[in-house]
Amino acid sequence: MAYGAKTYTLREESTESGTRYSISFKDGQGESHELEVSEQLFFEFRQMERRNRNLQQWNQRHREFNEVWDETLYRRALRVPKTLDERMIEKERNELFYKVVARLPEIQRRRFLLYYEYDFNFYQIGEMEHCTASAVQKSVSVAREKVKAEMRKYLKP
């Protein structure tokens, strides 16, 4: 049964002997029934219908307040999106980082990027460069210290 679908019908009849009130409905087996009810019960049903109708109208008008808003979704998210300020700061740091890396000597820059950017290990880089893994490790370590020092110099408040 759909929400809001009426399962009964109210009927008011005027007769010579007075007003007659009845409710018609179908039972679980689909058989129709009609019951004569008191005036008080009839008007209680009417009152209930009005309250339900008003509630449904109020629901329609205010449904948007019950919807989930972006702000609520952000709070529920596993990773909260960064604010505009945070994104701008991150972008500036990344630009500075790549400028610092670009100023490294050629061999150090290449090894540094192969290790950190492309996830090669020291042995793989050593094979590409025709040198030992320890030489690559030392080169990457020196490059990392240079980058750290430069970044600290620029990012100190």
UniProtKB/TrEMBL annotation:
Residue span, RNA polymerase sigma factor 70 region 4 type domain: 96-146
Domain of life of the native organism: Bacteria
Any one Gene Ontology BP term: DNA-templated transcription initiation
Coiled coil feature spans: none
Pfam short name (any one): Sigma70_r4_2
Signal peptide: none
Listed GO MF terms: DNA binding; sigma factor activity
Descriptive protein name: Sigma-70 family RNA polymerase sigma factor
